[in-house]
Amino acid sequence: MKTVLVTGALGQIGSELVAKLRGLYGENHVVGTDIRVDADSPVACGGPFETLDVTDGERFLEIGKKYQVDAVIHLAALLSASAEAKPQFAWHLNMSGLVNALETARQLKCQMFTPSSIAAFGPSTPKDRTPQDTIQRPNTIYGVTKVSGELLCDYYHERFGVDTRGVRFPGLISYVTPPGGGTTDYAVEIYYHAVREKKYTSYIAAGTKMDMMYMPDALDAIIQLMEADPAKLVHRNAFNITAMSFAPEDVAAAIRERVPEFELTYDVDPVRQRIAESWPNSIDARCAEEEWGFRPRYDLDAMTKDMLGKLASRL
Ligand code: AKB
């Protein structure tokens, strides 16, 4: 990667990824784009920034040409719970955006990264140590767009030679930009509430395990995969990656190690609970480890220590 175009640059992953990429490749070599404008954000102030609705293919290509990009990191998408509320719009945004990203990458001969998700699995997928290659019959619209996206990226690689790469992200936890509209968002909210109020009411039921990862590991994974030797990549779209798997009571116990009075109660949201139950308990990330050396640095305890410390000084 020399000059990178990032979509969804003001979002949870994008805002931190753009800053990290600008540090590595130079501020003028990372073009942040988003449908929103936030003129004061570091993403917009710290280097090139363009407004882009990813469903507008002409504008997508025009921005790619203007900056002569050689890599597209396409992050703009609706997450699982928001998508379930607006399934037709979710299909339109997630799939048209991806087609436009792939077309820009094809026409400009760029490398291309887009995230899939643990949502690409469904109720008939093996739940524990879910293999890289297994049954993928998701019953959420978000999951349907993720499986379709994985196949489309494979197709563009095989048919047009586009260097497409991707991972199946678990829930991502960060103290910088909050996520929006996901099922795993509780695992971020719980830390904010622990610092502010020392209590949290979870919309996910006790005993519901999902894979998770701290943002620094997620950013490293994107960069490491994009820089990996293509000859070693068997899977490309998309690699299982994970750092930990926990249920709400597990993260509460980790928080109590540092905030002993922390209280966890439950008020389960049936929509997000149904989505969570359709996803694996824990996935097997051995292919990512073998093919490009993926190895996360943060487990639940290390992440909890860092999150609580960072949030305490910020809030
Ligand atoms: C969501 O909860 O929708 C996302 C995801 C796991 O893809 N965080």
Essential attributes:
single chain, 315 residues, alpha/beta, Rossmann fold, UDP-galactose 4-epimerase, domain 1, six-stranded parallel β-sheet, three-stranded parallel β-sheet, 12 helices, 44% helix, globular, binds 2-amino-3-ketobutyric acid
Q: Give the proportion of residues in helices.
A: 40-55%
Straight-line distance between termini: 36 Å
Heterogens: 2-amino-3-ketobutyric acid
CATH class of the largest domain: Alpha Beta
Strand content: 15-25%
CATH level 3 topology of the largest domain: Rossmann fold
Report Rg: 19 Å
Q: Can you tell me the CATH architecture of the largest domain?
A: 3-Layer(aba) Sandwich
Class from helix and strand fractions = alpha/beta
Mean pLDDT: 97
| Total number of distinct structural domains | 2
Strand order of the largest sheet: 3-2-1-4-5-7
- The CATH superfamily of the largest domain is identified as NAD(P)-binding Rossmann-like Domain
Tell me what the structure shows.
The chain is of the alpha/beta class and 315 residues long. The protein folds into 2 domains: 4-170 and 215-240, Rossmann fold (3-Layer(aba) Sandwich), CATH 3.40.50; 171-212 and 243-314, UDP-galactose 4-epimerase, domain 1. Helix content is 44%, strand content 15%. It has helices spanning 12-25, 42-45, 57-66, 80-85, 87-108, 141-160, 186-196, 215-227, 248-256, 270-278, 286-292, 300-314; strands spanning 4-7, 30-34, 49-51, 71-74, 111-113, 116-117, 163-165, 167-169, 171-173, 199-202, 210-214, 239-240, 244-246, 263-266. The strands form 4 sheets. A 6-stranded parallel beta sheet has the order 3-2-1-4-5-7, sandwiched between helices. Strands 6-8-12 form a 3-stranded parallel beta sheet. β1 (4-7), α1 and β2 form a beta-alpha-beta unit. α1 (12-25) crosses α8 (215-227), α5 (87-108) runs parallel beside α6 and α7 runs parallel beside α9 (248-256). The two termini are 36 Å apart. The model has no long low-confidence stretch (mean pLDDT 97). Bound molecules: 2-amino-3-ketobutyric acid. Residues 79-80, 117-119, 142, 169-171, 182-184 line the site of 2-amino-3-ketobutyric acid.
